[in-house]
């Protein structure tokens, strides 16, 4: 009879040599309890290992990013951003939710330590974080609901939209500067032409 069958067995307790024996199903239940606790411990260890795996991946990507350029570096930065967002799920806020904004002191300290492990200076860390902020913003907003985004104070506009608006604003400013330059050049030519005419008349 298997464990399940034994667990379902029922009947009066057996008596051997004057000692009352425990029903078979009780021993099976104790065995199941031990197995369950063992699985629970393994699951907890797996969760901790998952966090450690993310941290190892972050350090690996950071080291690889320092040695690459161009498209390959862009791909690594995207991978880094994804790992950073995954890591935030392991740092809950006082409300119990993941630190999606990455503003928690514990999370920020952990991230700084990972950059140190990868051999980054504070300046290199800031530059890399600036480069990944665009990707991190997109990933966070893709993972949370609109209600969560509102509760976290995340503005509806994504870093991608901000980049587009910034580019559009830069183009508008450039057009205005070019228009002003043309006006100044025209005024200068007019003034120069007028002075030349006066000089000719005097001679």
Question: What do you see in this structure?
Answer:
This protein has 203 residues and is mainly alpha-helical. It has 7 helices and 2 strands; from the N terminus they run H-E-E-H-H-H-H-H-H. Strands 1-2 form a two-stranded antiparallel ribbon. It is elongated. The chain starts with a helix and ends with a helix.
What are the SSEs and their pairings?
Blueprint: H1 3-8, E1 15-16, E2 19-20, H2 24-65, H3 70-88, H4 105-117, H5 122-143, H6 146-152, H7 159-202
Antiparallel strand pairs: 1-2
Helix pairs in contact: 2-3, 3-5
**Order of strands across the widest beta sheet?**
1-2
Cα(first) to Cα(last) distance is 126 Å
Helicity range of the residues? Answer: over 70%
Low-confidence stretches: 1-10, 32-49
Share of residues in strands: under 5%
Summarize the main sheet. Answer: 2 strands, antiparallel
What's the alpha carbon Rg, rounded to whole Å? 34 Å
How many H/I helical runs? 7
Q: How does the overall form come out from the CA principal axes? A: elongated
H/E element sequence: HEEHHHHHH
Alpha-beta content class: mainly alpha
Number of strands: 2
Q: For the residues shown, what is the average pLDDT?
A: 76
């Amino acid at each position: 009879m298997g464990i399940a069958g034994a667990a379902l067995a029922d009947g009066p307790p057996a008596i051997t040599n004057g000692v009352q024996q425990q029903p078979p199903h009780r021993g099976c239940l104790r065995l199941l309890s031990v197995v369950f606790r063992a699985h629970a411990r393994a699951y907890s260890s797996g969760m901790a290992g998952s966090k450690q795996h993310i941290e190892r991946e972050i350090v690996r990507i950071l080291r690889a990013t320092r040695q690459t350029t161009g498209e390959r570096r862009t791909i690594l930065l995207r991978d880094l951003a994804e790992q950073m967002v995954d890591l935030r799920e392991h740092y809950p806020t006082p409300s119990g939710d993941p630190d999606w904004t990455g503003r928690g002191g514990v999370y920020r300290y952990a991230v700084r330590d990972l950059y140190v492990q990868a051999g980054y200076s504070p300046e290199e860390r800031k530059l890399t974080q600036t480069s990944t902020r665009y990707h991190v913003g997109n990933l966070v907003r893709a993972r949370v609901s609109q209600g969560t985004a509102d509760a976290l104070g995340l503005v509806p506009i994504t870093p991608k939209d901000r980049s587009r608006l910034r580019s559009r604003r830069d183009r508008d400013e450039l057009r205005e500067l070019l228009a002003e330059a043309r006006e100044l050049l025209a005024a200068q030519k007019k003034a120069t032409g007028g002075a030349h005419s006066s000089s000719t008349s005097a001679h």
